[in-house]
């Protein structure tokens, strides 16, 4: 007997595997009655903590400064990994009192800072199933029925946006990943067509330093992020000027393309935005698409924000031309009211997924393809991936298209009414007439001598936002336009009313008048 065999035998004698198994039985959900009871109680205690905190808190934030929260947390949770197990009931109660109580309440009607939606209860129920089954969407033998459901959802979405038989897609973590994938496929397709270069095998050629991406100056920052992650550098992104409505200016785009061609550079991708982060602006998709086609560029539409308009009878015309895209980003954790994270990346021609396709014998062997077994990892830059398609499916089934469309239509109408209210107020300056449901404005009283002092106005508007958050009354966003600080209402929540808006504006006036005297 070898030394290792003897050591193993001694270890087995000390604590047989069967004894270990009995020790761990209750910690996992399975057929054992004790484990089911443990799970049911843990879920009930978690629900009680969540409902208690969110139902008792009338404000979107407690107002607790981050330094005080750090002290509170450290005082309650002495160790991250204690030596012995704790009472789950007490633990979850503490989480409710310490963490949930001081979380941002995204379902509150005055939580209006970001593209951060209140999640549907039906989707939250689906999240229980998603986390409990813990499917991994990379291979059939890790997800089985989940693979088929995602494929059904992807095919429906592809038909909704493209109406092309060869269209396809994959669920993603959101717009950041989707935009990256669009530019990754764009880069590699261009290198293959223009230089007969296989980037997957050979990396980047010398000509890569001349590759250029065009997008509006108000496009999402992930276009620049994708450029440097793709090895092209931020200098590869050429921002195009926008018009008075913050949409890509087609005349400026034409000048940029002419300039790039004269310099011997290679514009390979053109990104249009359907719903900019600050203004919700939608670029002129048909006109931009024609430039992309004429210059043989990949046309990507970042519709992470505005993609939901496709299901609205009243507003889907705003997305006219989106079907001309080579790829589309759409997020469901925005105007589809899904819990984070949930998005999709869609392509007009599924063969373009070949540029990221790899086979691994342990995961998606080539002979699986011969037998028709679907392994979704070939369409994603993620390996392990959640079954997020389920919560969108459950939400669609539970609410139906009409309810989704009504919620979207309501928030757009609310934004339009809000803009009209602000425009009539002499103490406010409206920056945009909303295309979707984002309203940008600032406090700028004409009667005050300092009203034209940019530095003073910036400080005042920044202070207003901070004070509203500290008081827990309202969570607003802050942005900059031409070096000036503005406030932003992102009206995603269909429970927000005109009365809520009027209350917020009154609070802003009061805070501004108090601060203005300092």
Summarize the structure.
This protein is α/β, with parallel strands linked by helices and 518 residues long. Helices cover 45% and strands 11% of the residues. The protein is globular.
State the CATH topology of the largest domain. Aspartate Aminotransferase, domain 2
- The portion of residues assigned to helices is 40-55%
SS summary, helix count: 17
- Output the radius of gyration: 26 Å
Strand order of the largest sheet: 1-7-6-5-4-2-3
Euclidean distance between termini CA atoms: 85 Å
Mean pLDDT: 93
Structural class: alpha/beta
State the order of secondary-structure elements, H for helix, E for strand. Answer: HHHHHHHHEHHEHEHEHEEEHHEEHEEH
Shape: globular
CATH H-level homologous superfamily name of the largest domain: Type I PLP-dependent aspartate aminotransferase-like (Major domain)
């Amino acid at each position: 007997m070898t030394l290792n065999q003897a050591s193993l035998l001694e270890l087995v004698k000390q604590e047989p595997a069967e004894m270990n198994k009995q020790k761990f039985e209750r910690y996992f959900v399975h057929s054992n009655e004790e484990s089911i009871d443990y799970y049911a109680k843990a879920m009930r205690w978690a629900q009680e903590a969540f409902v208690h905190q969110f139902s008792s808190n009338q404000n979107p934030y407690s107002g607790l400064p981050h330094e005080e929260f750090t002290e509170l947390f450290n005082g309650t949770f002495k160790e991250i990994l204690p030596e012995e197990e704790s009472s789950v009931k007490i633990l979850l109660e503490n989480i409710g009192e310490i963490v949930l109580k001081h979380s941002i309440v995204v379902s509150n009607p005055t939580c209006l800072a970001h593209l951060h939606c209140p999640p549907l209860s039906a989707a939250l129920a689906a999240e229980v199933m998603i986390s409990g089954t813990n499917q991994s969407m990379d291979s059939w033998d890790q997800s089985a029925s989940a693979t088929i459901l995602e494929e059904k959802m992807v095919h429906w979405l592809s038909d909704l946006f493209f109406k092309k038989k060869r269209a396809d897609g994959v669920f993603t973590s959101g717009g950041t990943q989707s935009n990256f994938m669009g530019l990754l496929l764009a880069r590699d397709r261009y290198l293959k067509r223009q230089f007969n270069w296989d980037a997957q095998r050979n990396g980047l050629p010398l000509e890569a330093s001349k590759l250029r991406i065009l997008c509006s100056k108000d496009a999402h920052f992930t276009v620049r992020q994708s450029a440097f992650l793709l090895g092209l550098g931020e200098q590869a992104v050429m921002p195009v000027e926008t018009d008075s409505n913050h949409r890509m200016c087609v005349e400026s785009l034409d000048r940029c393309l002419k300039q790039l061609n004269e310099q011997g550079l290679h514009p390979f991708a053109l990104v249009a935005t359907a719903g900019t982060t600050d203004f919700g602006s939608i670029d002129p998709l048909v006109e931009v698409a024609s430039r992309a086609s004429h210059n043989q560029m990949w046309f990507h539409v970042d519709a992470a924000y505005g993609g939901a308009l496709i299901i609205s009878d009243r507003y889907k015309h705003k997305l006219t031309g989106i079907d001309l895209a080579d790829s589309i980003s759409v997020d469901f954790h925005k105007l589809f009211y899904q819990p984070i994270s949930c998005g999709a990346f869609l392509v007009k021609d599924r063969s373009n997924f070949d540029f990221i396709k790899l086979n691994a014998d342990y995961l998606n062997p080539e002979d699986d393809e011969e037998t028709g077994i679907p392994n979704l990892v070939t369409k994603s830059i993620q390996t392990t991936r959640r079954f997020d398609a389920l919560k969108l499916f459950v939400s669609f089934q539970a609410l139906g298209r009409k309810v989704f469309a009504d919620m979207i239509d309501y928030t757009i109408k609310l934004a339009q009414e809000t803009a009209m209210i602000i425009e009539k107020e002499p103490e406010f300056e409206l920056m945009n007439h909303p295309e979707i449901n984002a309203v940008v404005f600032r406090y700028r009283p004409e009667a005050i001598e300092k009203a034209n002092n940019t530095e003073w106005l910036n400080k005042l508007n920044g202070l207003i936002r901070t004070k509203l958050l500290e008081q827990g009354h309202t969570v607003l966003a802050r942005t900059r336009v031409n070096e000036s600080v503005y406030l932003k209402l992102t009206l995603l929540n269909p429970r927000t009313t005109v009365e809520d808006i009027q209350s917020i504006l009154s609070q802003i006036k009061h805070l501004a008048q108090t601060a203005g005297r300092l």
